[in-house]
Amino acid sequence: MKLKFVIGVCLAIAAAGCAFCASPRQSAASLAPASPAEVKPPALPNPQKMDVLRQLSGSFEEISQRSGRAVVQIFVRSYVTGDNSDNSGELLTAENSSGSGILLSPDGYILTNEHVVRNAHTIKVQVNVRVEAEARQRGDRSFNHPLTGKLVGEDHDSDLALIKIDKTNLPYLVFGDSDDLKQGQIVLALGNPLGLDNSVSLGVVSAVARQIKPGDPMVYVQTDAPINPGNSGGPLVDADGHVVGINTFILSQSGGSEGIGFAIPSNIASEVYAQLKAQGHVHRAQLGLSGQTITPQMAEGLELETDHGIVISDVEPGGAADRAGVKVDDIVVALNGKRMSSVHQLEANIYRLKPGTTVTLNVHRGSGQLDLPVVTEEQSGEELDALADMVDPEKNMVSELGIVGLDLTKSVLHLMPDLRRPAGVVVAARKANAPYSGPPLETGDVIYSVNRQVVAGVAQLRQVLDAMKPGQAAVLLIERDGHLIYVPLELD
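The structure assignment produced for this chain is given below.
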């Protein structure tokens, strides 16, 4: 950015005229060295043009200062799988990493990337240095060291997670509308790249809705604002200081920033944030239909009335679209009045919604047009979310393990029909800060025994753990991904 600034200043100086710049018509004598008495200071640039530069610089400074106060640094200690040196199996080893996060409420809710806190055993949060200094002036010394963060919820599909710190009256940012972004729009990326806290970089929006994987409904804001490891979870803000994206990853051949960075659009992030805050997990909507983007060949071969939109090839019997009256060979041209040019665009817009949302499909059927209201339904395959909906945080809490567990009742077994044993405790949710030393339990794990003592439910699991002493080894037999494994823990 220094180079761009220098070029801009030079252009302004050149336009205004400069004592050191000679015109082609000047004689050689006029270019001769002047005597000391004749030396004059260079002419000042045009004040009006310099004011434009100062105003632009001042705007960036104001946005950086204001937005940076709500950006935090996140330190994570996690367990990862590594090969044993004698090749006898795999070991879980501790790993330290860091990332960025955004304060989105004055009472300490922080949005970050899910990959930043994945498999976290402990989470620590360091607030901005200016916020820390202001807290010390108020006599609050707790900001002098990283604060403990609690994992509220995480969503692997969108790569977003929500953390909570026990503080109030904190600075925070608000979401902007990522649908209003334009290619070429100036944006700032804030975060902690390579562990360097409180950093900001400048760039433009390179693309507003970039699809990375074919068939993936997730789209990203592409930017050339430099993003490096450690920026993950930080905000991409617009000229108003509103969060229009969550910095997530880069495409790079060297491992460093090459001007191809990607951020989760704010309109997706805001919906995920709201659901994580309310219920700790995310439910996603679907329409219950399949379609293909219309191509010229498709329009000709199927003799379609229009050459743009999405032609419906299948409607799930009894699904949301079927109940709304959508039929095979209908052509969807708009969603809620917004033109849809591809099936990917339609999926991306539905992806951000929660189940039960009513949308209007604008369709062509033959030579007619219809507006069909569709009440979206929940995507299938949400077993773990359904488990989380069944728990009572007080009744099902197993404090010794930092988990919320469920007995293997008929309704639970219906969601998990292929378990190896008929009785045990399934982990429906877990805390980020586990009250023991050892590898973390994962959502969906099923606990069958502790030190060879079979546990048939939550009450029996609590009874066995209550009888154990602090520091005593507890080896759990669990089922994970269809395999029975031992997990050794040391209770605090």
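Interim note for the steering committee: The mean pLDDT is 84. The two ends are 51 Å apart (CA to CA).
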